[in-house]
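BUG: 3D viewer hangs when loading the predicted structure for this chain

Environment: internal workstation, default settings.
Expected: structure renders.
Actual: progress bar stalls at 90%.

Input used:
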Amino acid sequence: MAKSLQNLTTLLLITLTILSFISLSTAHDYSFSKDLSAEKELNHKKQKLTHLHFYFHDVVSGPNATALRVAQAATTNVSAVSFGYVAVLDDPLTVGPEPSSKKIGSAQGMYISTSQSDLQLQLVVNYVFTEGIYNGSTLSILGHNAILTPLRELPIVGGTGVFRFATGYAHLTTYMFNLTSLDAIVEYNVYVLHY
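Structure tokens produced before the viewer hung:
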């Protein structure tokens, strides 16, 4: 009887040891991802396409500049197209091309002159909307802007708020460009897919 009790105790200890190893291995799930249903988890019903039309006012001159140079190439490397120029911007977005037109948001970010031979910018900017159903929502644009080309296309790479999960593109057309001050007004037609 003592031997069978000893065997039972040994079997019980082995079983408890195995169970504790199993519970330790399953106690912590260190998975960093899981699949979700957008419809179920995020209340996303149907993707929609929205067209936005507005004007971007880039003022680089005068006391009320909305875009400021924060870096530039060393003086020995200065080119006719300002290669290496970096500007930070907080440009108004308006319904119409007039500076006094109703403001609907701001373009906040930076642009960098990335060509040694042409006026081309790398644009890294968030469009922060302040009007209507888009108030508090943003669109993020990251792309190449050949500013002397009549029609440019830049990608929408994301968004927040109403524009969460946004993708799309923006067509840019220069409405006005002052060769003396370098101030510009750019017309935007944005086509964005979002939920």
